[in-house]
Every structure is written in structure tokens, then in C-alpha cells.
Amino acid sequence: MTTSTFPDAFSADAWMRRFVQSAQAAKDRLTALDQEVGDGDFGINLSTGAHSTLRHLDANPASSSEPAAPFHAAATAFLDEVGGTSGPLFGLLFQSLAVAVAGAEAASTPALAAGATEGLAAIRRVGDAAPGDKTLVDALGPAAEALRAAPADTSPAEALARAADAAWAGVNETARLRARMGRSSYLGGRAEGVPDPGAVGIGLFFASARAVVDDLSTRLD
Questions:
Q1: Residue 34 CB burial class (10 angstroms; 0-12, 13-18, ≥19)
Q2: What is the pLDDT of residues 12-71, one digit of tens each?
Q3: Contact between residue 94 and residue 81 where contact means Cβ atoms under 8 Å apart
Q4: How far does Cα 153 stand from its chain's mean position?
Q5: What's the predicted TM-score (pTM) here?
Q6: Does residue 39 sit in helix, strand or coil?
Q7: Could you tell me if 106 and 90 are in contact, meaning their C-beta atoms sit under 8 angstroms apart?
Q8: Contact partners, residue 213, CB within 8 Å, separation at least 6
Q9: Which of 49, 201, 25, 111 is nearest to 57 (CA)?
Q10: Long-range contact list for 186-194, CB < 8 A, 24+ apart?
Q11: Residue 35 has what pLDDT?
């Protein structure tokens, strides 16, 4: 199932490289958001992980045709080289996606759905966050659900576009939530009106399947 809006060809390598660009472009805005509701290091950590991911991708260009390789590169970068809470959590998502598409000639929509769903479960186990806690779970949960809801023959590009829309809706919902996890939970009402930076990072990831996001103001309410 494809539409004229999205290309038939899908490349996990191109997706990850666009995410690297999106993370770097959003670094300052994410830092500013995290200074309002967190430790102020999320933009730096995401950009560091993106930079390390690019280094791993460029070190093994022959693997660009293997759908699991870009996710594995990102998992290695975020799990091993990024500090704070965000590195391991994003690393778990990328690791789950790598496992889900391993051995396939191309990443299918059902495989991506399975990877996102397992990544969500792993993040919830490690971070102990639930929907409504004002965390990245509030963006990843809707994205994973959108992928699961897509018919099996939906092109990955189309399915990921739906996942991105769902993720951004979740991102903007976090601005209306009172945090129940992390540093922002101590801010009470002062954190209301500010979207969760980790959720924004998830939105960036899924949106980058289609194009680089170079202006967050077009995505946030």
C-alpha cells in the first residue's frame, strides 16, 4: 500500500542519517526546553548520540544496504557513548528495531511495528514510566500503535508517516500534562505548557523517516 506522497524505496540508513541532521538542528531548542523542565542536557545528549551514530555509519558504509545495521549503529552509539537518562532509553529503542529487522532484505511495516512495540516495552521496564507521566513514552506509545494499526502491506514510508503524526500528537499532549516522573515532577504546575524534551526526540526520530526536521516550531503547538 503506497501513495504518491512517499517514495516506494525505503532506506533505514537514509532515515537514520536524516535523524542525525534533525537532532543536530534541534539541539539548541531541545536544550532550552530541558532547561525549563529537566536537567538541561537533553539537547546535548541527543546531538552527541547523533554525532556518534554518524561516525559508526560512516565507518561501515557497506552495511547501508542491511536494514538492521543503521539501527545497530545508533544503539551502540546511544547505549555506550551517551550519558544521562536519554542515552540508554533511545538506545533500547534502536536496539529493538535492529533485532526486529535483522536478517531481512528490507525493513517491513510489521517488523518496524514489532521493533517499536518491543522498544516501548523495554523503555517502560527500565524507566518505570507509564502513559500520562509526561515522558517519551507519551510519544512512542502512539507511534508504536500507529505502526501496529497499519495493514501489513502498507509501505514503511507511509506507515512511518502515520507514526510520526501520532508521535507529534503525543508530544503536544505532554505540554498539557503534569509530570509524574523525573526532575520535572518536582516543578508541579511550572512544567505545564512545556512539551517533554524526550518525547520531542521521539517525534524527531519518526518524522525523519520522511525528511529532515530543521524547524521545531512547525511541529509544536
A1: buried
A2: 999 999 999 999 999 999 999 988 877 788 999 999 999 999 999 999 876 667 899 999
A3: no
A4: 23
A5: 0.90
A6: coil
A7: no
A8: 22, 25, 26, 204, 207, 219
A9: 49
A10: 187/37, 191/36, 191/37, 191/134, 194/33, 194/36, 194/37
A11: 87
Residue type, 169: A
Residue closest to 144 by CA, chosen among 124, 162, 126: 162
Q: Please, is 212 exposed, middle or buried when counting C-beta atoms within 10 Å of its C-beta (0-12, 13-18, 19+)?
A: middle
pLDDT per position as a tens digit, 121-147: 999 999 888 999 999 999 999 999 999
| CA atoms lying within 13 Å on the CB side of residue 93 | 25
C-alpha cell recorded at residue 157: 514510508
DSSP string, 82-103: --TTHHHHHHHHHHHHHHHHTT
Query: What is the Cα Rg of the chain in Å?
Result: 16
Torsion of CA 5, 218, 205, 58, to 10 degrees: 90
Model pLDDT for residues 105-116, shown as the tens digit of each residue: 788 999 999 999
